[in-house]
Amino acid sequence: MTIWIAIAVTAVGCYAAKLLGLLVPAGALERPLVRRMAALVPVALLAALTAQQTFADGTALELDAKAAGLAVAAVALLLRAPFLLVVGVAVVVTAAVRAITG
């Protein structure tokens, strides 16, 4: 029964968050600082998710094939490689490190 309580609380919380977003006055959303922050929040969330999925294993730091692929992708981006090439190089390096480390 506790799982249904958790689902209900989560549903109510999501509805409340959406309702609060609709109740914010339009004038508050037009401020330059709010616009800048709204543009940066998705990038920050994606970066945090990428870092957590790449470097974390539970509560421990883990440097494995995913970290090598991400490092090579970062270097390719710094060299201004096309996005498809960045993804391809990262995939190949990740697969190669996994094959080597077994």
Summarize the structure in words.
By secondary structure, this protein is mainly alpha-helical. It folds into two domains: 1-28; 29-101, no CATH class. Helices cover 81% and strands 4% of the residues. It has five helices and two strands, in the order αααββαα. It has helices at residues 2-23, 26-29, 32-55, 65-78, 83-101, and strands at residues 56-57, 60-61. Strands 1-2 form a two-stranded antiparallel ribbon. Helix 4 runs antiparallel to helix 5 (83-101). The radius of gyration is 20 Å and the shape is flat. The protein starts with a helix and ends with a helix.
Q: Kindly report how far apart the N and C termini lie.
A: 43 Å
Number of domains: 2
Helix content: over 70%
Mean pLDDT: 92
| Physical arrangement of strands within the biggest beta sheet | 1-2
